[in-house]
Write a structure and sequence with these properties.
Blueprint lengths: L1 H47 L4 E2 L8 E8 L2 E5 L2 H12 L4 E2 L12 E10 L4 E9 L2 E6 L3 E5 L1 H11 L1
Antiparallel strand pairs: 1-4, 2-3, 2-5, 5-6, 6-7, 7-8
Length: 161
């Protein structure tokens, strides 16, 4: 009788243990689904706002002049041919970026060249060309920060000197 009782207790223990293991498996699966859902939500939120910004330069026929300024050096360009050349150099290969500009002017930049586009109608718009951490950038405030080559930077810089 004692042997039968031990067998019954052991069977009951095994059944109870199986139920606990099944509950643990179900809880583990639920936890995995929740973690996966959180990761998917974070990934969607992160990639949702990755916009592509395009450099918006004015049309040459709308410009009266372009003013280039670096430190104390300044040059005013009125000739249509020179205006077109500068716009081509600035536009490069139709610049695009995912880096947004959220400032009026570059921060912690070296050798900043300010480019003012003076419109025939009225008003002006500004972009900045600069060196930062041995890389060259063109920044259009509240639009984007675009990379440029050292050669492109140097060509614009030569126009001022």
């Amino acid at each position: 009788m004692s042997r039968e009782l031990t067998t019954i207790i052991l069977c009951l223990y095994c059944i109870k243990r199986r139920k606990i293991m099944e509950k643990k498996k179900i809880l583990f699966i639920i936890l995995c689904v929740i973690v996966l859902a959180v990761f998917i939500t974070i990934a969607l939120y992160y990639f949702r706002d990755k916009r592509i910004y395009t450099l918006n330069l004015p049309q040459p026929e709308n410009l009266e002049s372009i003013t280039l300024k670096q430190n104390d050096n300044q040059k005013n360009i009125n000739e249509n041919k020179e205006i077109n050349e500068i716009l081509e150099k600035l536009n490069g290969e139709k610049r695009t970026t995912k880096e947004e500009s959220i400032q009026d002017a570059p921060v912690n930049a070296n050798n900043v060249i300010t480019v003012n586009f003076n419109f025939k109608e009225a008003g002006a718009s500004t972009i900045f060309i600069y060196n930062k951490n041995n890389k060259y950038y063109l920044e259009q405030p509240y639009n984007g920060i675009y990379q440029m080559t050292e050669e492109e930077y140097s060509e614009i810089e030569k126009l001022i000197k």
